[in-house]
Design goal:
The structure is a single chain. The chain is α/β, with parallel strands linked by helices and 356 residues long. It has one domain: TIM Barrel (Alpha-Beta Barrel). The protein contains 13 helices and 11 strands. It has an 8-stranded parallel beta barrel with strand order 1-2-3-4-7-8-9-11, surrounded by 8 helices. Strands 5-6 form a two-stranded antiparallel ribbon. β2, α2 and β3 form a beta-alpha-beta unit. The chain is globular and about 70 Å long.
Length: 356
């Protein structure tokens, strides 16, 4: 068993970054090329709308651009807000993207990061679960090469078939992201991959357990029907910051938080001599509360190993863009992750075999 390492970037806006959006996006694309150069497995973006702290408003366009800067990395979306997309059009979009990436596409689907996004477009959040389920069934059917006819409260489709087929068979891997057991169960029952993260590990253990239990039932059902298996992987997501030593990581994170806090006029007006110490304490709190995995290579490897022992994830997706971090340190985190941390993180199975 091998852990794959990749990136998750929701293109959050850094208030300390004075560059134009064009310059920031160009740099992010350069970073993807660098990530591939140091051996990263893949990169995912998100979908966010009507929220001025993110630029991930067009995930399809972002993946398309990324496909032209990389050759081997898997590229994906975590996740398309399915309620905002007509499934018949999204199916063709996905097939086109899979062709453009030469079969490197990964596709996540979700209920939506914020119900507000749905309300702002006239969609009742109370109906988003049945809407999602119907749209997912249509999307999966079209990606499989089927023809769909539906008349319901949500859709009217008459013998619709996709005009393009994806490169991957039967279709690109499908992901579902969630941090509660119901999400794990749904992903497992439907043969999807599961993305978890950005919450403490002990709260994610029941999600993984639910996923694996549902997955076992799915595999048995597929075997009885002589049908192929899809999905089954788990991706673990976290903010990540790596320096050469633990104390340097905390000090650098503290410097960034100190600088960011200074951008707030209320903080400047009430400036206190101990503001730097408070920033360093905040950096430590972010690590202790599992919001950020941070430290030197050995400490980061230890934290990742602990998480892997508890969750058994297949893929680690790192958000390496906390606000205030200088570009050189972003790439340092990527490089240290692949060159120094990854070799220290041995999957449980490998350690057991060595012990025997």
């Amino acid at each position: 068993m091998t852990i794959h390492y990749g990136l998750f970037d929701n293109l959050q806006i850094d208030p300390s970054d004075q560059r134009t959006p064009q310059a920031v996006l160009a740099q992010r694309l350069d970073d993807l090329a660098y990530a591939e150069q140091v051996g990263m497995w893949g990169a995912f973006t998100a979908e966010r709308h009507f929220w001025n702290v993110y630029r991930s408003v067009a995930p399809t366009a972002w993946v398309a651009a990324a496909s032209q800067r990389t050759e081997r990395m898997r590229l994906g979306v975590l996740a398309y807000t399915l309620a905002l997309h007509k499934p018949e059009l999204l199916a063709e979009e996905i097939a086109f993207l899979d062709t453009l990436t030469n079969g490197r596409l990964e596709v996540g689907v979700g209920l939506g990061h914020r119900p507000t996004e749905l309300e702002q477009t006239g969609i009742d959040p109370a109906r988003r679960v049945p809407l999602f389920q119907e749209r997912f069934a249509i999307l999966q059917g079209l990606l499989s090469g089927g023809s769909v006819t539906v008349t319901s409260d949500f859709h009217t489709l008459r013998e619709v078939a996709s005009g393009m087929a994806p490169v991957q068979v039967p279709y690109p891997p499908l992901w579902y992201a969630g941090t509660d057991p119901n999400a794990g169960t749904w992903a497992g029952v439907n043969g999807l991959d599961l993305a978890i993260g950005f919450t403490p590990v002990n709260r994610l253990i029941p999600v993984v357990q639910a996923f694996r239990a549902a997955r076992a039932g799915y595999e048995q059902q597929q075997a009885e029907r002589d049908l192929p298996l899809t999905g089954g992987r788990i991706a673990f997501m976290r903010h990540l910051y790596i320096s050469d030593r633990d104390d340097l990581a905390r000090a650098e994170m503290g410097d960034d938080l100190y600088r960011l806090n200074g951008l707030d006029p209320r903080v400047r007006e009430g400036s206190r001599p101990n503001r730097r110490e408070e920033a360093e304490a905040e950096a430590q709190r972010l690590i202790e509360q599992e919001i950020v995995i941070g430290g030197g290579p050995q400490e980061v490897a230890r934290l990742l190993q602990t998480a892997h022992d508890a969750l058994g994830f297949d893929i680690f997706l790192a958000n390496v863009y906390p606000a205030g971090v200088e570009q050189g340190r972003v790439r340092r985190t990527m490089r240290l992750l692949m060159e120094e941390v990854a070799p220290l993180v041995a999957p449980v199975l490998a350690r057991v075999l060595e012990a025997e």
